Amino acid sequence: MSKNTLSEASLPAAPAKKPRLPLKSLNLQVL
After folding, report:
1. Chain-centre distance for alpha carbon 29
2. How far, in Å, CA of 28 to CA of 9, rounded?
3. Is residue 28's pLDDT more than 60?
4. Per-residue pLDDT tens over the stretch 7-26
5. In this structure, what is the dihedral angle of CA atoms 2, 8, 31, 18, given to the nearest 10 degrees?
6. Distance between CA 18 and CA 31 in Å, rounded?
7. 10 Å Cβ neighbour count for 14?
């Protein structure tokens, strides 16, 4: 459950429901 919480906090705009989006893009936006 810890991983789920971290995922939601890190990617609130892209939940696990949309794994199609590249994590790299999200990471770049966050940075």
Report:
1. 11
2. 15
3. yes
4. 555 655 555 555 565 666 66
5. 120
6. 20
7. 18
